[in-house]
Amino acid sequence: MRGTQTINSKGHLTIGGVDTVELAKQFGTPLYVYDTALIKERARQFKSAFSKHSGLKWQVAYASKAFSTIAMIQLARELDLSLDVVSGGELYTALKAGFPPERIHFHGNNKTQDELELALQAGIGTIIVDNFYELQLLNDLCRDRNQRINILLRITPGVEAHTHEFIMTGHDDTKFGFNLDNGAAEKAVRLAMEASHLDLKGLHCHIGSQIFETEGFVRAIQLIYEYIERWSETGFQLEILNVGGGFGIKYVESDHPLFIEQYVDKIVAAVTGESERLGMAVPEIWVEPGRMMVGEAGTTLYTVGAFKDIPGIRKYVAVDGGMTDNIRPALYQAKYEAILANRAGEQADEEVAVAGKCCETGDILIKEARLPSCSSGDILAVFCTGAYGYAMANHYNRLPKPAVVCRLCRTRRSDACCPP
Ligand SMILES: *Cc1c(COP(=O)(O)O)cnc(C)c1O
Question: Does 358 participate in catalysis according to the annotation?
Fold first, then answer.
């Protein structure tokens, strides 16, 4: 159980005090249910972790690709977060939600001319420039529009972090960013400083996802500072250092993420320590949590339908969704846990595979789920689906996308909606 989840007297799973079995009845399944109180709590934890470092400047930018809807972005606005977008569509959603453009940061390794023009027209705060093509294109567009824009350069520091370990990749083989080790980053810094219409404010890196340690962040920060030291004669000033997202969450019992404060403390210590070492002013620190902000707040409800029992091998329990509403298990073997929402208090007594309804053998949501022996019509609740579930939902087999429900939609939407 996470956030506001509990079991009521009928033995039903509740979220935010709302009976999920009733939600399934009212809105149908599959259904994404969001616990907005938990999203608010995560935002509060990030903000308090930073604000205890007095004198430090910082921004927490919600990486909206994890879950981008107007209601979610309005919530991010109410929580005083900044916002990352990675496409014209996400930017459009942010603007529609009334998000202040100056707190929007635009990422992506192949932003199109149309997307950059939309961003310039909207007056967004910062563009994170990924490559030489974009550097040139953006400067040209700004010149044509007689406009300046703040940029960060996306740096690939040669550190890749995954869950419990980080790897020094040496030669980085990724489509993103300017590599540090082959001179691309230095060249980009020089070009950006010379560019007539770009204001280079600093650097960005994003080293991985679902990270359960802090050494990868620290190592990436140290590497970036090593190079900044070497570039001293360029006159480059680091005003902003954006260390990206990737903070890990507890999908399953065996996941042991750190507390938000532990990540933030280590990042702040590394940045302040390195700045002192070089006798530089401490830059503004930005982080970009996506999954950590919304992942655990989302639960997907399904209705159990068909079964297939292969004696001695496996029992399949099929639900009315699958890789269309959650592609992560099929895409990268992501693990989830589930319970029966209508029998939430019951002991799990069998191990089954939870299968989706798509025409793909790989459409298995949970390979080994521990559940009470279930029947058709039971409501299955899969936890921790708030990030990259709805965001990656697709219409394979012409299935519709499920609805999303959350508490904040119950009041009439206004500026006063969902105070932190
Ligand atoms: C995806 C992404 C994030 C968010 O990653 P999470 O693992 O969801 O925290 C942040 N920054 C950038 C640049 C990203 O591409």
Answer: no
